[in-house]
Amino acid sequence: MSNTEINKIGIVVMGTKNYGNNLVNMSLSYVLERMGYETMLIFPPECSDEYVRYSDFLFSEKNYSSSKVIFVSKYSELIELNNEFDCFVLGGDQLFRRKFMFSTFDFFSLDWVYKSKLSIGTSFGVDHYEEQCLPFHIEFYQYWLNQFMGFSVREKSGEMILKKELNVSNDVCVTSDPVLLAGKEYLENLCDNDFGKEKEYVASYLLDPHNEALQLIEFVANKYFNGNKKRLENIGYENELSENIFAGNTNTVSGEKWLSLITNCKFLITDSFHGLCLALLFSKKFCVLMPEEDRGKTRIKEILREYGLEDRVVTDLEDFVSRDVYNRSIRFDEVEEKINLLRDKSIKWILKQLRLDQRKCKDNFIDIYRNKSWKFVKDKVTADVEYIAWGAGDIFLRSLHVIRKKNIRYVVDQRSDMIGKEIISGVEVISEEKMKEKKNVVVIVTIDSWEITMDIYRRLKNCENVLGIANVLERHGYE
Prior knowledge:
About 35% of the residues lie in helices and about 15% in strands. It contains 19 helices and 18 strands.
């Protein structure tokens, strides 16, 4: 075996109590194992307490095996995974979307990986770069992205964001969502075959039930299916209008039954991207109630455009009836052909990436940030600079050698009850506004979080009085 050969892949995934998310994770693992690789799913440390009981795994142990899952309890354990895997893959779903990575960027950035890393079927969820949502400068975001060997994204808009807006130089390709990659046969084997076959019905899978949706479901059920309907809202997304076919006992709503609900229906009403994927894969007539932008509307719009099915979007019952959406035909033979073509293209791209010889990551993204931040500090510092700490907590108290060395007399804290107090002798807690009134300030963040450091950087980078920002734990330039 050569030094660059890949055998074992760690799939870095988002863990939520969401059927589509569970299915994406399982499907990607299946696809890579069909290619001959051994895989395991790696969940973020934030999930460890909740997931160690597997309470949010919606599929059974047979299909979502606990032996194929890794939990780490803290970030320091992540780097050790480099000894267990030959390659790391950022799994499908909206993992490029900042709102879903806000508290877990250290994990999803794969900055702890020094072996090869790749994204497969990942999504921004929107059709533009959400710069206003990012707590750090675009330069560092671009640098992080360029550490990947290549990117496969679900939407053409994602390809444009990477190439045009973020100037990513690595290989970028539009590929199928992992659920479409896995294919119909795999999903059929997951189904609970005894469920949902007793009579014809309309099925609804809604993440956000609302009155217009309920009216539409009732109309279709009564007009075409003698009132037969099966409703299931996603666990964890329930609101006052939610109802499910399991009489509210959400603990028994298995992923296998959910999948069967869709595969055995005669018509599907959904606002879910993966609900739509299943309708296309299993040739089910359907209509889509477009979700809010916050739900990732772009991904639904693009897949409908790809298959020429934009007319399946309905706004309400009146729109559904006036355009006779139920009776509009769908050329499922053409849909299947397009699915197969994109699947073949996607598989070839993934195999090509996994067989490349360029295995080593260029640099450590966070270390690059740290070096640049301290170089910036040292280049700007003058004799009359004033060092101010940020964060009057445990890390501050454990950093007194730095506090004393830099003659720090003030520490910024967001807690109003702390303002004006001395946290230690000679060091007063002040507000952010008070800090901005001072001249020639260097902020030393005394918080054990790179995320918060970068958020502070974003907030202060344009303040004329702030000469530099760095974290006390970085160990670059202050000792």
